[in-house]
Amino acid sequence: MKRIMWAVLGLILAAGLSAAVPPEATFVGSIGDSMCGAKHMPGETAKDCTVECVKEGSKYILIDPSGKVYQLSDQKTPAKFPGEKVKVTGTLKGDTITVTSMVAAE
User: Fold this and answer.
1) Strand pairing class (69-72; 96-104)
2) What CATH number has the domain spanning 23-104?
3) pTM, 2 dp
4) 3-state secondary structure the chain
5) Higher pLDDT among residues 43 and 52, named by residue
6) CB neighbour list of residue 53: distance below 8 Å, 6 or more residues apart
7) Interval 65-88: pLDDT, tens
8) Most exposed: 23, 54, 86, 93, by fewest CB within 10 Å?
9) Which residues of 27-53 are buried (b: 16+ CB within 10 A; e: fewer)?
10) In whole angstroms, how far apart are CA 52 and each of 13, 73, 87?
């Protein structure tokens, strides 16, 4: 009887923990930097501005079409796409996307 109770308790706990994990989603937007956000320095392209700001210590971000800014857990992959439109797959917690993949968007 105790084994059955422990097994049921284990299943309940496992179900509760899996429900706490946010679902994976896809986000589309452009890669920018945390210093400039959606507005880049006058006279510079989004790509050039993002590259320069990241060199100065800014972080890569994702800016969705509405202007909402998301922080990105992965700071290496966005270096391939500065100023470009991308599809990011991952989990969202607060304003940070834990990135599982990133590809160029069409």
Assistant:
1) parallel
2) 2.40.50
3) 0.77
4) CHHHHHHHHHHHHHHHHHHHCCCEEEEEEEEEECCCECCCCCCCCHHHHHHHHHHCCCCEEEECCCCCEEEECCCCHHHHCECCEEEEEEEEECCEEEEEEEEECC
5) 52
6) 33, 34, 35, 36
7) 999 999 999 999 999 999 999 999
8) 23
9) bebbbbbbbbeeebeeeeebbebbbbb
10) 48, 20, 23
The domain spans of the chain are 23-104
Query: Model confidence at 20, in pLDDT bands (50, 70, 90)?
Result: low
Type of residue numbered 39: K
